[in-house]
């Protein structure tokens, strides 16, 4: 068994105390020296954060804690969430950001560099497209889009506007995970051919919602934005929108995106040839529409497969973790769990290498499971903006990983095994399934490049 002592010392040194959230250094494949050139308040990257009730609050706090960044605007349709976030960010960075409920007005500021998007899924791509057209860079929480057509539009937008869009699949920047995938590619267990991914939780019922007056603290029309209008119900906002197809994308994109992205990275695959899904809403009888139990199988033309097991209402772990990926290969197995760690086994199931986690990660923390490690991803985003350094997760790769999950949901909803073009990810010979490639938009809110 081998422990990476030097790497553990590095992580411990980098991720200790207040310095944790303002590091200047980083992954072996990225240059650290460029951050030293970012000096003074005038050189700080100016960002607006859109959607700050939960995950966005954590992101705004993390961005504010980076010494080479200033949170300039807080954009939220919930006045309570905005006020809370503004107070929190002001305490962290010593400068009070401006409240602006409508993020589009923030985009008019010529001094704004980037929009951070943590709004509900139906807003992800439309907001990113508007920011791109306004000449801003984008940090976009996963999933990057609500449907595949929007993902294609994001790729087209970057090609047109030449801006930077980084998806928030932060594990791409976690040092030990980066090393694990590098070792996998170098052949530590031979050719990997099957990646099993999973997520489990014990989410309660959301009940049956009742039509209710819109609260005075909420701009519900702007919250709906590009989605066709529906009446306000008392079990929708804030988190439960995830489980409605109209606004959300289910557990497969809410949490599956992270692990399926690692699987795709490890197997070095892009678009699949075949996708199937089984599952449904099994645990409760309520308004929840997306599956709470789902198994997606994704096949590729290089003789490899990714599977995803999602259990929203039963938290029993796999390999001691509620979230993870296992790579099965010719000469052994690699296990990556919730944290910044991994294990490698031979074909006799002997542990031959272990790199341990130095920072606790709580995958069941809905807003901020890994703030310290995620700062690596933010600094990579800044380095790409300031100095053109490679993104850990550019939108082309972000779209491909998101699409794998979306194809799983389309297979689930259409009841079909999808045959897919491995050149572009599009569904072949199935008009019914292709109807789910895009969505209907509220008139006047249609996204465009």
Give structural notes.
With 449 residues, this protein is of the alpha/beta class. The chain contains 13 helices and 15 strands. It has helices at residues 5-14, 55-65, 79-93, 103-106, 121-133, 148-161, 175-186, 220-224, 250-254, 256-267, 371-387, 395-414, 431-434; strands spanning 45-50, 69-75, 98-99, 114-117, 137-140, 165-167, 192-200, 274-280, 293-300, 304-311, 323-329, 332-336, 342-346, 351-355, 418-419. The strands form two sheets. It has a nine-stranded mixed β-sheet with strand order 14-13-12-11-7-10-9-8-15, covered by helices on one side. Mean pLDDT is 90; it is low at 1-39.
Continuous helix count: 13
What does the largest sheet look like?
Answer: 9 strands, mixed
Sheet/helix structural class: alpha/beta
Considering DSSP H and I runs of 4 or more, what fraction of the residues is helical? 25-40%
Low-confidence stretches are 1-39
Strand line-up in the sheet with most strands: 14-13-12-11-7-10-9-8-15
Please write the string of helix (H) and strand (E) elements: HEHEHEHEHEHEHEHHHEEEEEEEHHEH
Give the distance, in angstroms, between the N- and C-terminal Cα atoms: 52 Å
Portion in beta strands: 15-25%
Gross geometry: globular
Brief write-up:
It is built from 13 helices and 15 strands. The chain is an alpha/beta fold and 449 residues long.
